[in-house]
Amino acid sequence: MKIYLDMCSLQRPLDTKTQVRVAMEAEAILSLLALCAAGYATLLASDALVFETAQNPHSIRQQYAFGVLAMTTEFVLTDSPSRHVPERSMPPGSNR
After folding, report:
1. Which of 24, 35, 36, 70 is deepest in the core (most CB within 10 A)?
2. What's residue 72's pLDDT?
C-alpha cells in the first residue's frame, strides 16, 4: 500500500491535542507512519512537500517534517502527468 500525506497531515502530531479530534488524527498519522517504518506500507514524498517544508518558519516543525520525509522510499514529481483513473473508481455523479 502506498501512502501520501499532505503537509497538514504530516504536521498533525505536533499540534496541541486539547481537542479529541486533533488527538485522534495525530494518533492515526503516527500509526500510519509506524506501518511505513515497519515496511507494511510505502510512504511517498513529493517536490511539493519538500518545498512546503523548506518554507516552514518554525524550525521544530521543519525538522520534524524533513525527518518524516527522510523515511520515504518513493518520490512523486507534482508536474508529472496524472494517472488515468478508471471510470468505475469515480464516485457516482462526479464529472471529470
Report:
1. 36
2. 93
Question: Residue 89 gets which letter from DSSP?
Answer: G
Residue 36 forms part of a structural domain: yes
Residue 93 covered by a domain:
no
Looking at the structure of the chain, the number of domains it has is 1
Instruction: Report d(CA 69, CA 66) in Å as an integer.
Output: 5
CA 71 vs. chain centroid, Å, equals 12
Q: State how far Cα 88 lies from the chain centre.
A: 25
Q: Which domain holds residue 66?
A: 2-79
The answer to the question of residue 31 being in a domain is yes
75 forms beta bridges with 45
- Indicate left, alpha or beta for 93 from its phi (over 0: left) and psi (-120 to 50: alpha): left
Whole-number Å distance between alpha carbons of 78 and 38: 27
pLDDT tier for residue 79 given thresholds of 50, 70 and 90: confident
Q: Which residue type does 3 have?
A: I
